[in-house]
Amino acid sequence: MTARDASPVSARTAIALTIAGSDSSGGAGIQADLKTFSAFAVYGASVLTALTAQNTHGVSAVEPITPAFVVAQMDAVLCDLHVGAIKTGMLANAAIVEAVARRLHGVSAPLVVDPVMVATSGDQLLEPDAVAAVKRRLIPLARLITPNLPEAARLLDAPVAASEADAVAQARALLELGSEAVLLKGGHASGREAVDIFCDRSHVERLARPMIDTRNTHGTGCTLSAAIAALLAQGVELRDAVERGKTYVWHALQAGSALGVGGGSGPVDHLFALRGSSPPA
Predict the structure, then answer these.
(1) Is 217 assigned a catalytic role?
(2) Which position among 27, 44, 187, 221 bears the catalytic label?
(3) Were both Cys, which of 5, 95, 105, 214 would link to 257 (CB 3.0–4.6 Å)?
(4) In what helix (H) or strand (E) does residue 58 lie, and over which residues does it extend?
């Protein structure tokens, strides 16, 4: 039974599923995804792939979940809930990637793949041999992939894009891996603007926002992919979901610059609207 086979009663509520790791400090991973789903009034379900011991300074330990138990969680959710969109985040190792991809095959809900490889702190979150599995098994299932510049370089076995022209070329190359669309995130670049490249089968588009000067960027990538998945679960078209997701993250970064959470790279403010700022776009 797939997400589309669940009871019609649950179809009354937009539901998004995150398949990702846990962040014990609450700023990234499953915790960030569920907060983001809630910010968009979307019901969030979750499948844990790994436990991490981490805070705003870094990751001190990782404990992957067994692939069989990851699939058991997926089965439990997908046989009962009418899932409108799915996102993947940290998948830890090749065995988990393979298991998730096998279970997602044939599921009709749109899939957003955030190929999480490295934490904001620089700690590795994906084993090296899993990159090939992500490319071969998971990306071809995706409606959208959302790599940042270093992740794109890893996926393409190429240097990190040094210019906007390089980023456009890499976005086009990533599209050849089989997803329907690519959002190449440019927040790791220097400059006054954060320039993302959106690329699908018909066009390439430059999406720019002013760079926000803040050290509180923990969970930014998880939050963006979760926002897009939440909007897709509500039936929003992909291009609009990308733009609205970016707007949400930009406001969360702005508001997060004032959060006093931890002593390192703190989180964005997923719930800024509850604190009196603008609601999600």
Answers:
(1) yes
(2) 221
(3) 214
(4) strand 58-64
